[in-house]
Specification:
The chain is 38% helix and 22% strand. It is built from 9 helices and 12 strands. Strands 4-3-2-6-5-1-11-12 form an 8-stranded mixed β-sheet. A 4-stranded antiparallel β-sheet has the order 7-8-9-10. The radius of gyration is 21 Å and the shape is globular. The termini are far apart. The structure holds aspartic acid. The site of aspartic acid (ASP) has 15 residues, from strand 8.
Amino acid sequence: MKLLLLGCILTASFSLQAIAATETPIRLVIHGGAGTITKNTITPEQEKAYQDKLNEALKAGYNVLNKGGSSLDAVQASINVMEDSPLFNAGKGAVFTHDGKNEMDASIMDGSNLKAGAVAGVTNIKNPINASYAVMTKSPHVMMVSKGAEQFAAEQGIEIVDPSYFRTDFHWEQLQKAKEKEKVVLDHDGKTAALFVDPMLYDYKYGTVGAVALDKQGNLAAGTSTGGMTNKRYGRVGDSPIIGAGNYADNNTVAVSATGSGEMFIRTATAHNIAAQVKYNKATLSDASRNALDDVKAIGGSGGVIVLDKSGNYAMEFNSEGMYRGTIGDDGIPHVSIYKE
Ligand code: ASP
């Protein structure tokens, strides 16, 4: 009997050790956009509001990871907090298109199997990141756009809201200012088509949100959600829902989420650029990120990236003046930064 008991205790402690040995450190890294963010461009009250919301987003993702939940669930939990806040250009705080609408893009990627899902140009999905997860898990496709994506999301039980939910006075004013500046640029340049006006001329703040996470099972995930760029038109879609540009995750390399001038991030395939450097050149996460941002800068773009690998190493790099960002690990203590250190 005693021997049997001893056997049971030994087996139990062996299994516990086996579980402990297979658990990896948890890590979550988030961003809430990059751009001309300096002590002079935001008030102390705004600074506090951003810090509080980033902390809340980090804790939401941490709670999932700490309980043994998946990196995919953590990414969504964290992004949902930022999507539901008017502070960020995603979900509730999405910027306006030229036509006065809010059209959102989002994507998510599972590093364990390279599955991915994305939606673009959606106008009534409260949390576009959840719709992108549904595309990944409930359909054979990677990307759905506009009305089709909205119909699919509704069929999957994703929360649908009236498009007026996304209206914020601040972003409405921002659109009016952008249109005025556009007019000045057009008059000055004598151009006839607004199509040729570079959005960079009037909007240097990117409020896209993103998260990359590593769970206890050692799986990486990345998610990105955005309202795109103020005054965008003609169904413009940026890098955020483009796998390999604004978002990427592969357990063998890294998980990446980007924010910045989307066109340049698409043209230089930023997120995959970083993963490829880590894979083929064994580059450090910081070096790979800086190289990729240099490529973006070389063609006139700016912004930032968050990057995480399966050992829990991470980087938060940007070539703009600031980036709302933060990270949290096993100790559950959130670290948030806004400006250049
Ligand atoms: N990258 C986003 C886009 O071009 C903008 C942002 O990061 O805020 O749509």
